[in-house]
Write a structure and sequence with these properties.
This protein has four helices and eleven strands; from the N terminus they run αβββββαββββββαα. The mean pLDDT is 85. By secondary structure, the protein is an alpha+beta fold. 20% of the residues lie in helices and 42% in strands.
């Protein structure tokens, strides 16, 4: 890699550092590192694919690219909800696989420094949520920060790569 290209890459990484796209599921506000997000689109026609887990709602055609979509509510074992005009699909790239994450609504992009992030509660005391990598504090508010790499295991990534 040339020195110029290295510098451009470093600048891009610096502008995304500590930035999170926040979205709402029920009453909770979640954050996802902006570096994983490729775009945000409104809910659209989803084609169901047989024999997928219930949280994978199907596939969409996004400008000629087939993208599997996951309902985050169902992935987090929350009750299903009708989609409405606030429902969005956040397209992310996880392990070279593009996946649409269906969320109740998108909030905003916020900066959360590492100093304002605390680890989730200890799993030995009954809190076991592999999807949460930390809890971001912004004033009096908290954001549950999602570990994108944990949303899909290797096998799920491989299976979704085959249908996209």
């Amino acid at each position: 890699m040339t020195k110029e290209l290295e510098n451009v890459t470093k600048i891009e990484e610096d502008t995304q550092k500590d930035k999170y796209l926040t979205f709402i599921i029920g009453k909770e506000v979640y954050g996802i590192e902006i570096k994983f997000v490729t775009e945000i689109i409104g809910i659209q026609q989803i084609t169901e694919v047989p024999e997928l887990p219930n949280y994978i709602k199907g596939i969409i055609n996004l400008r000629g690219k087939i993208i599997p979509v996951m309902d985050i509510r169902l992935r987090f074992k929350k009750e299903a909800r009708e989609y409405n005009d606030r429902t969005c699909i956040v397209v992310v790239e996880i392990n070279d696989v593009f996946v649409g994450l269906i969320v109740d609504s998108v909030a905003e992009v916020v900066g959360i420094s590492e100093n304002d992030i605390v680890p989730p509660p200890d799993t030995s005391i009954g809190f076991n949520n592999r999807y949460i990598k930390g809890i971001g504090k912004i004033g009096e508010d908290v954001k549950l920060l999602i570990d994108c790499n944990m949303l899909l295991n290797d096998e799920e990534c491989e299976n979704l790569a085959m249908i996209s």
